[in-house]
Amino acid sequence: MKLRIVPIMLTVVISALVLFGGWFLYQRFAVQSPLADVVSQYEGVKSSHIDIKHDAVSLKLDLAPDTNLQGLVQHIKREGKSVIGSRELKIQVEDHSSEALDEWWEKAMLSVAEAMDNKQYTNIQKSLDRLAAGTPNLSAKATIDDNNVYISLSDGKSGKFIILPRQPGTMEVWSHA
After folding, report:
1. What are the CA-CA distances from residue 145 to residues 38, 47, 55, 149 (Å)?
2. CA angle, corner 56, sides to 164 and 120, nearest 5?
């Protein structure tokens, strides 16, 4: 019996295309698309980039300055539960901060870090309010859930969003500083 190389190779290539093409279509339309719809329907989300891996779902978000960050995270966890499952949800917000917001955050960071270290989370909003009183048009809001503290700063035109983990061991360097 003589084996023909061309039909065997053609069969292997077609099988691989069908297999990987099917997997790509499944990931695109059955997994990524529903999560993209969940994220985009929340008010204040300008755009999003989703990367789904075996153990984590990474979201890179572009948000309007007045977006409720904690509400968005809770919405994603609740409405995207079927897609996220047991994967870790990692959220990165694009920085559209102004120089004034960055300078203000540098001043507020010490009192926020102290409140985080002492686990006195109610002091975060108090210190933000105290520091914001001297800055016109500044809105500073801190909210909390089981895993993170969410800080939203806005001057009406630009916004800065900070997500701080509540576990002290993971709070070595803040990427939004």
Report:
1. 20, 24, 22, 7
2. 20
SS (H, E, C) the chain: CCCCHHHHHHHHHHHHHHHHHHHHHHHHHHHHHHHHHHHHCCCCEEEEEEEECCCEEEEEEEECCCCCHHHHHHHHHHHCHHHHCCCEEEEEECCECCHHHHHHHHHHHHHHHHHHHCCCCHHHHHHHHHHHCCCCCCEEEEEECCCEEEEEEECCCCEEEEEEECCHHHCCCCCCC
Q: What pTM did the predictor assign?
A: 0.77
Strand order from edge to edge, sheet including 139-144: 139-144, 148-154, 159-165
Residue 116 CB: number of other CB atoms within 10 A? Answer: 19
Average pLDDT over residues 67-93: 91
Q: Give residue 48's pLDDT.
A: 92
Among 96-105, 137-146, 168-177, which stretch is predicted with the lowest mean pLDDT? Answer: 168-177
